[in-house]
Amino acid sequence: MNTMKMKKIEKFAKEKWEDEKLSAFDRSRMDEKFYVMDMFSYPSGAKLHLGHWFNFGLVDSYARFKKMQGYNVFQPMGFDAFGLPAENYAIKTGTHPKDSTMKNIEIMRGQLKEMGGMFDWSNEVVTCDPEYYRWTQWVFTVLYKRGLAYKKAAPANWCPSCKTVLAREQVKQGKCERCGSEVHIKKMNQWFLKITDYAEELLTGLDDLDWPEKTKAMQRNWIGKSEGASVVFTNERVGNLEIFTTRPDTIFGVTYIVMAPEHDLVTRLVTKEYAEEVDNYVRRTEMLTEIERQSTTHEKTGVFTGSYAKNPVTGKMVPIWISDYVLESYGTGIVMAVPAHDDRDYEFARKYNLEVVPVIDGFNPDGHCAYTGDGNMINSDFLNGKSVEEAKTLIVRYLAEHNVGGKKVTYRLRDWLISRQRYWGAPIPIVYCDDCGEVLVPDEQLPVLLPYDVDFRPDGESPLARNEKFVNTICPCCGKPAKREVDTMDTFMCSSWYMLRYPDARNDKEAFDPDFINQMLPVDKYVGGAEHSCMHLIYARFVTKVLRDAGYLKFDEPFKSLVHQGTILGPDGQKMSKSKGNTVSPDEYIEKYGSDVFRTYLMFGFNYIEGGPWSDSGIEAIKKYYDRVDKTFDTYFSIKDFADVCEQPEMDLLLAVNSTIEKVTAGMETFQFNTSVARMMELFSSIRNYIDTGRNSKILIGVMETITKLMAPEAPHLAEYYWEKLGYTKSIFKTEWPKVDKEVIEHANIKIPVQINSKNITILTVSKGVGKDELTEMAMLHVNAKLNGRKIKKVIFVPDRIINFVVK
RNA sequence: GCCGAUGUGGCGGAAUUGGUAGACGCACUGGACUCAAAAUCCAGCGGGAAACCAUGUGGGUUCGAGUCCCACCAUCGGUACCA
Q1: Is A588 helix (H, G, I), strand (E, B) or coil?
Q2: Which of the four pLDDT bands, split at 50, 70 and 90, describes residue A542?
Q3: Closest nt to A765 (CA→C1')?
Q4: In chain A, at which end, N or C, are there fewer CB atoms within 10 A of the end residue's CB?
Q5: Are A332 and A229 in contact, with CB atoms under 8 Å apart?
């Protein structure tokens, strides 16, 4: 098929879909709703790349398949339009982030239409549109009102030369990627969302989700629940020093405690004698990124503070150290060290010559390592002789009774830092008033508009702080002059609730109509990259749960079923990136082969879940395949008379058709698109062979209709064209997906291998469902010839699969 | 280091979930058509002369293992010294 014909067909099909409003969701058929959603794209590059195609194109095929199965499909599309790259691009080139973003969206929107996606554009979402971020701000207000938004000082990566906060992505080996200066940790007052309040539910909620097990495991690790105890040590100068431990049983073996260097109490604990050393160490730690501190190759270092803490159980005084291997953000930022029974503590104790006291039998003083196994307690007063488990229970009870600690659960999950000292994001709807303090902007005053005219070059503060018109406002509470919050929100905030906005995207009264949204969600199939396993997917779950508790939603989880598409790598097997120069643009392929050929190639050439390196060696074959399809249709259309016969060739053809329906359906359902395409190729080949033999039974008419439907998700434009040529006026996507004729399948002949001692001796062709006795009788003819006097000990028969004679 | 995933022909990848390993396709080889080439069509295509050997390596369970178990190796991803 030449390019001209192909383009004509694509145009024809797209017009037809437009006329028939194929992508429109029917609000009167809620029982059959099916919400298919792709992770929306970030319009940083000007054009759609291969990964977009792999995601959006193939999920569109899935959506079309679902539509043909009779579902009332809702497949929206949108753009995650705020974010750092647009701002960086602006700093570099002077192009305003809004201008470049809107331009990119315009182009990508056009390409998505070119793709032929059945996207409901009437519900498009663009997160940098005030009509959208107005409601992102509203989501913030809901969180705020529920006490889930708060401000606290938190460390940020700071480039002293660019005078700006850096994303971890912008820090390369401790240096700013733009200017190469050493990156420092700077504490800044920032907004947090209390996701940790939902840690337990975010964890248990995973159990019932139809998500890849791998993703669930990653989220479980991310949340990182650990059960243990808190123990309150005391220091005469600062009072209580609460620590968290998973090994309270080893309390009698504590020989020192360690604090995170950045811990607030450090300055108050350090004695004059050690002040300089501690100060140096703290400053050295500030130069390290969290990754460096946590690396195992990083040697354990620490400094004594000069102070001591009292063990609440033993009364013993132990030295207080600081070390960068303790993080302020986990637990309480203070650790009790038991070198005899913890590898890290042992290493540290050996290095600094600290005391080692074994409290579980099994520790070898000459072993040069900690003993972390089970055993009975020793050197532990009232715990002596107890097992580790018993000791844990007893000591937790003791701590609670004496009011110096008790059972405690800690999560690795940290509260969500949403403040960004950047321009290109949704402003945080807060006003600071001298009289009223921190005031939430009332709903009716939303959106807090992001001004266009802003100097977004970095110079030490949030760009919005330099826009007087923006900053100076009136307190919503008392009407006096006040100042606006100048930080903007993390873009993950925009994407944490977009699944709720999509179905009701043009609603200008509220973020969404709860009655409607409670029917539309959860999303039935969510598809996107595995890189979002932790952040985005947890944030969206969190926001959903908060909105549920606030009374807006009646469901617990936003995404019922999740699929991750694999990554298409560059031809060199490396991740595609502009810097590596291994990117592949889909455009030239679309131009040359058309969107259907390209789509089918992506379906056929890769395992969808795994992805793989790009190679175009097979794309020509897909073009040839559709050329053969086209010829087959031509031949079919040229047939004048159909005979009324149904003999063996017709039976064979019907069997091929029905088994293809079965397999293509299964493949589409499970995102195994490659096998669906393979089965289609086989069926077309069968049809061609049938027609070539000169037979033209009336059965062929139905066969051609069926195969056209089956090919519709894979090659939507072509299928629509053939469907019309077959004499139908209504879109093929409004017809029913073919059903398997079970009669045909059930009476098919199958091949069953006959084995002796698990080695094939022959293959029998029998009718499906053949019984053991009958098959044994047939097989014996072949088996007897090979027995050579051996005796049959056992016959293994798996229906429709195998018969195996175990002989001796 | 830890956690997770993956490992099948020259290549992309199949394998009904423990039952004929290599579907489908690429590349390649041979043939038909052609003055010739391209295109198209047909046939072959893991290794081996064969017995047999083959799913990263070595063991194990089983009548039977790509699939399950144990150990190891390699690659990729995530990443926490989690107290």
Answers
A1: helix
A2: very high
A3: B20
A4: C
A5: no
